[in-house]
Amino acid sequence: MLKIDNLHVRVAGRDILKGLSLDVAPGQVHAIMGPNGAGKSTLANVLAGRDGYDIVEGAVTFGGQDLLSQEPEERAAAGVFLAFQYPVEIPGVNNTYFLRSALNAQRKARGEPELDSMQFLKLVREKLAVLHLKDELLHRGVNEGFSGGEKKRNEIFQLAVLEPKLAILDETDSGLDIDALRNVADGVNALRSPDRAFLVITHYQRLLDYIKPDVVHVLADGRIVESGGPELALELEQHGYSWVADRKAPEA
Ligand code: ADP
Ligand code: MG
Ligand code: MG
To answer: Ligand 1 pocket check: which of 16, 45, 170, 199 to mutate, most ligand atoms within 8 Å of Cβ?
Structure first.
């Protein structure tokens, strides 16, 4: 589904990703862990198509299509979803309205009919039920005055409505108390499906107590330096990230 091959990315003149390769199959959950500054958010932003990232070398395909040549909107329509570490507030723009516009833009780009407000409301009700959410978030401005936990819940709700093929969560767990963390994890688990993959980026192992990844990768200094099963996350928890410093892939 997602294939990243020898990706080199420069940010503000500095090499940040230095030959990163990754293969994600439909239905899988891959966790990306690594120290601060390793390039985790850079990877997420490059996949979503944000500005300011210089692709120096390498290729990324998504469903067999060249992802890097696509505009962010095309990527979203193709099914790539990025939940931000710090979700933006859009005061005065109704959350439901915002989400319907986003969904319809994607449907239009795919050549699918847009949903009218009744159809959208039906979809929203279904998703709220799946996630065991109340509708209180729907009528407020986008993330306006939301608590940390509410913002994360809203991201999961966005994910549920947009039904992406690949969901990238960049430190969705940062700053959450244990109840909010469980909420997020329950949401992700409810949305796991054989045709949807997750890239769960996290600095801490605790989220992975609740979201069981199929594969855990350690990203350090711009490369994947170690991959393994869920037990790798526990080893990291015990030994810390300094432990991977000794295991860095040799200079090419
Ligand atoms: P992580 O998410 O793993 O903590 P990032 O991908 O955010 O790491 O950052 C990797 C490195 O790239 C850091 O050294 C960071 O300072 C640098 N960096 C990221 N974005 C920018 C930017 N817009 N301008 C300059 N440097 C950046
Ligand atoms: Mg960081
Ligand atoms: Mg980051």
So the answer is: 16
